[in-house]
Every structure is written in structure tokens, then in C-alpha cells.
Amino acid sequence: MAGPLQGLKVIELGQVLAGPFAGAIFADLGAEVIKIERLEGGDDGRCMGAEFRHGDALNFHVFNRGKHSVALDLRVSQGLDAFHTLVAEADVLIHNLRPDVPRALGIDAASLGVRYPRLIYGEISAFGHRGPMADRPGYEPLIQAFSGLSSMNGGPDDPPLRAGASLCDQGSGMWLVIGVLSMLHQRGRSGRGGLLQTSLLETALAWAAQKSDAFVNEGRLPLRHRSGHPGFVPYEAFETADGPLLICCGNDRLFAKLAQVLGQEQWLQDARFESNRARLENKQALLAELEPLLHTRSRAKWVESFEAVGVPCAPIHSLPQALATEQVRMQEMLLSVPGEGFSLTGMPLSFDGYRPAIAAAAPRLGEHNSRHGITALAAQASGIRNKKETS
Hints:
Keywords: Transferase. This protein is of the alpha/beta class. The chain has 16 helices and 13 strands.
């Protein structure tokens, strides 16, 4: 099945995660993504961990599948000329370079916009395109720390904690793709491209908006709940006889069902517990009664009982446990990488019932130079040679 973005040509100047993730989304959706890399070593993501395949780390394969790799030295005229040849035929250029780098090379949005007015130019920075820190580099944990995002993770007595996933890097890549698709729609009417900007900091602030807007508008600082919720009780993880179970009573109707399963119908006439607002005020009193009850049975037994009446709950799985569940297996998100003998997680999207396949493995450095007409002169300064292509 052809991807919905077939025919779209994207140039990616991506490093490590945010930019490459955006490029991987475009590639999975069927666009031709040409990844331009440094001659020496290429994308730093190639060494982001132990060697997995072809000298590259697994992370590189995750975020660069389905792309072409062109190795160029943009500091020399031959490399820059080759770059312009590629951009002249492209619809979109994306990068997550430090902002001063494109300006120094003369490939910033203002310069390319004059030369290629239909080009959509998307850039991801660390701290945003305005302000005293606009040109600073940044990494995921730095942004989570700076933005206040990590201050919300963990329990009341825990130090600030980084979220386990790269929310800011990957979120920025997603925002960039959303913005590019919006601008493609706009270009269809106006015939002109334009500049699109996002950053890890803006993404972090967007993810934290529920908490920060409460502070700005109501003066409320977020309370820290390891697995709980500031607005509902009970709505967190509890220990059972053999493992943790998350229970989410998001309204009084669900709490009534919980009380009935537990044989505690008297809670429904108790002024301390009869409404969610009352339970918020008397949370510790309720938990003091609830927690011992949950210790009396296995997690599987509680899940069976709660699900039978519609109380939302879930065992807290490890990654291997989650992957082993029938529900996860039925999503068929693990997709084979053509010709490589391993699998990667596909896109969380299906089109007419079909998930986009992984079109090809991550490219080797400079693998597609010859396919895109890059001469040896533009790529031989550091010994890069055009490799025989197999696709």
C-alpha cells in the first residue's frame, strides 16, 4: 500500500533524535526523505549506543529507517552546490541544527526562501527562536529540567525526575510534522512555502500546560503523585497480594461500582466518601480502608472482578510483560525491517485498517550519493565513496 505522502520530497539535516524522528514519520508515511549527513561519522545518532547493525546503534535504526543517506561537506563549494541541487527539487527541508549553523552556511530560512519560494522550511531548536538562549544547544534532560517538567514527576518526597520517554525530542518532531502538513495545505492555495519553527522548550511547556495554566490562573502549584491524579480519588496504583494494580475511578458512578465489588457499600452513605470532592478532602482516610482490602487477593482476581462491572484498572507491567499481552500483540506494531532480520515498532496510525510498513532499513552513511547525482568531488574529501546500492 502506497503511503499517503508518496511523491513528497523531504530533505533532512537531522541529528540524534528530534529532527530524525520527524524525518522517520515522513518516511513511514511514504515521503522520500533524503538525510544529509557529515562526511566524517555522519549523524551522531549512529554512535548513540553500542553497535547493533552495520556499525550503527539500534537508536539510529529506530529513527532513520526508510531514508536515503547523502554524505556532503557543506563547508566547501562542491558540497554546497550539491545541497542546492537537492533542495531545488524538494518540497520540505527540516533540521534540528543549532540555529547559528544554518546562518553560517547560508542555508537559513531567509536565504533559502528567496531562492526556493515554494520550499517549506521547518526547524527545531532547543530553547526556541527568540530570547537570550535562542542559539543555545540542548538535550532532552536539560529541557525537562529547565522547563519545570521534571519537577512534576515522582512522589512528594522524590527528587525531580526525568520522564522515561524522550517527550520533548519526539514531541517536537511530531509538532514539526503537524506544522509541515498544515503548510502543505496552505501552499496548495497560495503556491508559496514558508518558515515553520518549534522547539524542545515549547513542546515541554505544551505538555506541562495543564499544570502551568493552573498556576497562572489560580495560583495552584502541582501536587506530586507518583501514579495518582490531583483531581480524582481513588485514582492511582495500589499493591495487591502479588503485584501493583492501577485503579482509576474518574467519577462517582465508578466509585460506587468499586465499593460494591469490595463489599463496602457503606462508603456510599459516608459523608467523607460520597462524592469525589469529599474524597479529595478525605483521601488518606479512604486509602487507609481501601489498601488493606486490596492486599487480600491477587492482582488477576481483582482485575477480573473490576472489569466485570466496568471499573477501569490495569496491572502495572514491565516492558516484556506488556509486549507479551494479547492486546499488544494484536496491534501488530512490531514490523519487520526489510532485508535485516529484526523488527522495529511501527507508526501508531492505520489507514483503512493498514499500518504503514517500514519501507527500508536505515541507510549506511553516504549510501545514496550516486542515486542523487552526488559526484565524487563533493564527497571524497574525507574518503566517502559511493557504495553500490541494493535498492
